[in-house]
């Protein structure tokens, strides 16, 4: 993946965003307006609101991805999409994007929301990072770093991970993981 370049925020970008949103079909807007088709003035007002919001975001591009970053909330919000509009569910790419654009020691999460809060805008992925690089979310693994570049294909998946972790640092990582139950998380 190539390095990211920050795009300037200017009137040309704002107009391109307006034109892109104006070209969307009416069913796109009905998804935004709770199932109803909005009037032209409602669509125009919504589009202008989106363009103004976009002007406060930092936009980065590389050869594959466009990433928009909003720093105005309690968390840093990253919106990731591919230029070719294909799915971008490569976890390692998301990790690298977060590390390059926010920082390697910042933690970020992807939220799978309640259906009532679902926004599905065709292959956009959202990460929220805490603005403090020392903050750690109260969930996730607590053990040291373990990266498996090329897991052996001939073993069962659980054995492959244990064997590869053992090869990395000479220990059996599975002994260091605490068992998890939903009852203990409440």
Task: Give a structural overview.
A hairpin with a 3-residue loop joins strand 2 and strand 3. 7% of the residues are buried. Helix 1 (11-22) packs antiparallel against helix 3 (40-55). The chain has six helices and six strands. By secondary structure, it is α+β, with helices and mostly antiparallel strands. The protein folds into two domains: 5-129, no CATH class; 143-176, no CATH class.
Write the layout of secondary structure elements.
Layout: E1 5-7, H1 11-22, H2 26-32, H3 40-55, E2 58-61, E3 65-70, E4 76-82, H4 91-101, E5 108-109, E6 124-129, H5 157-169, H6 182-185
Antiparallel strand pairs: 1-2, 2-3, 3-4, 4-6, 5-6
- Counting DSSP E segments of at least 2 residues, the number of strands comes to 6
Q: Provide a count of the helices.
A: 6
**Low-pLDDT segments, ≥5 res:** 162-169, 171-186
Task: Summarize the main sheet.
Answer: 6 strands, antiparallel
What coarse outline follows from CA principal-axis ratios?
globular
> Could you estimate the helical fraction of the residues in percent?
25-40%
Cα distance, first to last residue? 40 Å
| Overall residue-averaged pLDDT value | 82
Q: Calculate Rg over CA atoms.
A: 21 Å
Number of domains: 2
Strand content: 15-25%
With strands numbered from the N-terminus, the spatial order across the biggest sheet is 1-2-3-4-6-5
The secondary-structure class comes to: alpha+beta
The arrangement of helices and strands along the chain is EHHHEEEHEEHH
